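Tokens for chain A. Residues wanted.
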């Protein structure tokens, strides 16, 4: 009888030990996933433009069918963001609007989406590659638009920029009809004048060299022409982040009537 009791106790012990070990390994597995995979962006609105310029949002399998639907969606999203933080003023909402788009989407369409989200109340944007929209911000993105409500605002004439803004503005010009390449010119506007560079390699070298002289400068403006493609704009955005800019301002295309 005692042998039977000992046998039962031994089996119970092994079962308990096995259960404990399984629980421990399951805990390690969950912990490893949490460590390896960064937590998603929670306080964000995710927007995606496809190759036809249609807007997709996570809550729908089909694109938003009209400008009215898009505006209504953005307004509801901003109201939800206000309730989330119990905002006393629209400025209290720091929700990030994360935009992804197909590579050949023109900047004019992307800027139009930023403009509509600004009208809804949002003030922070981040342009990203598709598939990275749910990752944490790296580095912190505080991108925003220029204020087109200023009476002196004239997107066809970059001289409207204040000296502070003019210190660092990258113009991305379209290539002439029939020309090869994704863009026609890269121009950096600064208080002392403007500098043209032939390609992205030279642009990054220029920005690195100049920013070493002005380490306190964290903001830069981008002003692509309307037909500059999203992949080109995104390449410049990534470059600015590598150089160390933490605030990227997306100005309206100078050749657009938006």
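Reply:
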């Amino acid at each position: 009888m005692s042998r039977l009791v000992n046998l039962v106790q031994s089996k119970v012990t092994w079962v308990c030990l096995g259960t404990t070990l399984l629980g421990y390994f399951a805990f390690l597995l969950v912990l490893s996933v949490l460590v390896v995979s960064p937590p998603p962006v929670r306080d964000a609105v995710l927007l995606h433009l496809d190759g036809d310029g249609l807007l997709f949002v996570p809550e729908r399998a089909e694109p938003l069918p009209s400008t009215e639907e898009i505006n209504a969606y953005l307004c509801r999203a901003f109201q939800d963001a206000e309730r989330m933080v119990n905002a006393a003023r629209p400025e209290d909402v720091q929700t990030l609007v994360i935009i992804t788009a197909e590579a050949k989407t023109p900047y004019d369409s992307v800027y139009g989406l930023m403009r509509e989200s600004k009208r809804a109340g949002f003030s922070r944007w981040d342009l990203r590659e598709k598939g990275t929209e749910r990752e944490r911000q790296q580095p912190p993105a505080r991108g925003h638009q220029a204020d087109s409500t200023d009476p002196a605002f004239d997107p066809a004439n970059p001289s409207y920029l204040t000296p502070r803004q003019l210190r660092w503005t990258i113009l991305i010009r379209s290539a002439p009809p029939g020309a090869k390449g994704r863009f026609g010119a890269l121009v950096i506007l600064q208080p002392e004048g403007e500098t043209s560079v032939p390609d992205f390699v030279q642009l990054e070298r220029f920005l690195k060299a100049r920013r070493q002289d002005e380490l306190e400068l964290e903001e830069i403006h981008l002003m692509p022409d309307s037909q500059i493609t999203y992949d080109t704009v995104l390449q410049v955005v990534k470059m600015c982040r590598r150089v160390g800019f933490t605030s990227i301002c997306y100005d309206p295309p100078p050749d657009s009537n938006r």
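The chain is about 40% helix and 20% strand. The chain has a mean pLDDT of 76.
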